[in-house]
Request: fold
Amino acid sequence: MKLENSIYEGLSQYGEVGPYLKRIIRNGVISTVDTQMIIDHDDFHAIEQGKVLPSEQQAPFNEIEQNIENLLEGFAAKGLVNNNFHALVTNFGKLLFSFIASDAQIGEVDSWHQQGIAQFGGFLMADGGGPSIQQWNTIFTKDGDMLELDVDKVWIIEGHRLDYGSISAASTQKLYPSSVLVPPEEFKKLTKTAVGMPFLDGSLQLGNVSGKVRVAKTNLLTGGGLASTSVFLSKVRPRFVRALMGHVQWLQNNERIELSVEQLLAVQQLEAIARCYCHSLVERKPSLPVALAIKFVSNRILLDLVISGAVKQPMIQRDLMAFTRMEGSSYRCLFEIYSKTKVR
Ligand SMILES: Cc1cc2nc3c(=O)[nH]c(=O)nc-3n(C[C@H](O)[C@H](O)[C@H](O)COP(=O)(O)OP(=O)(O)OC[C@H]3O[C@@H](n4cnc5c(N)ncnc54)[C@H](O)[C@@H]3O)c2cc1C
Reply:
C-alpha cells in the first residue's frame, strides 16, 4: 500500500530502514488500516520532512530541550525504571507548558513549587467519556469571570497524587478543547484514585481524577490550541521513542528480554532515525507526519517483541504494550498520517 511506502520513505530521510523495519512497517499498516484507508489505498503523497528554516530563524535547542537531549543519552544504560521515566516526562511537561502558558502563568506555577505548595503537576487529556471530544465528560461553562469545570479524567501519570494540573476540557458545544490551569487549592477538591497495577518495576502509577472545580477565566491556557499541541507533539514523540528504544536496550543488557540480532539492530536503527530527526530540529520545522511515523514504527517494534516471544515476563510485556498507547497508539498515528498525506 502507498501508506506503507509513505512511512518507509519518511523515515529513510533520516537513516537506514533495514529489512526487519520494512517488514514491521508493512505488517503494521496491513493490520491497522480501517475500511476507509483500504478503499482509498492508492491516494497518498509521501511523508515530507520539515522545511529547512531560513538561517535567521534557525535556533539551537532551548534549555528544556537541551535537558531532554542530555537525559536521552543515558537510557540504554539506566532504563526508564526508578525515577528516570518521571525525570523525562517532567521535562516534557515543562516544554508543553512553555508552549501553552503565558509568562505570568509559568511564574505562578514556579512560585507554587518554590513555596512548597505543590510538588507534582500533570497534563490531563484522556477522558472518562471516550476518545473523541464529542464523548468527553470534562466540560467547562463560563460564569462571569469564572469557569465551572466538570472533571472526569483517566489514566493520568501519577494522577492519584497530583497537586495541580492542566486539564483539557470541552466547551459546552463540544467543538474544541481548551486547557485550564487548576491551581492547588482547587485541585485539592478533586477525587483522585490510583488505577491499575503500576508499571516499570513499580515506579510508574496511573490515576483517575474527577469532580467539580471553579477557577478564574484567567486560568485558561490560551496558547493551548491545536497548532501548538501539534508542534509540541512533533518535538516530543520522537524523543519519547528514543527513550523507549534505550529502555529496550537496557532490558536486553540486563538479560530481562532476549532480542534476536535483527530485532536489536532495528531498535538501534529506529533510535538513530529518531535522533537524527530531533537533531534536525535546530534547522528544520518539526514535521508531525514524520513524528507520527516514528511513533507508529516504535509501537510495531514493541508489539513484535511481545508477539515473537522475545519478552517472557508478563509485567514487561504489559509495560511495552502500554507504551504503544502513550503519546499515540498505532491506530491514532496511522489515522493522522492518513489524514495528512491523503490527496484531497
Ligand atoms: C503509560 C501511560 C501513561 C499515560 N499518561 C497519560 C497522561 O499523563 N495524561 C493523559 O491525558 N493520558 C495519559 N495516558 C492515556 C493516553 O494518552 C491515551 O489517551 C490512551 O492510551 C488512548 O490512546 P488513543 O486515544 O490514542 O487510542 P486508542 O485506544 O488506540 O484508540 C482511540 C479510539 O480509536 C479507535 N480505534 C482504535 N483502534 C482502531 C482500529 N484499528 N480501527 C478503527 N478504530 C480504531 C477506537 O474508537 C478507539 O476507542 C497514558 C497512557 C498510558 C498507557
Summary: The chain has a mean pLDDT of 95.
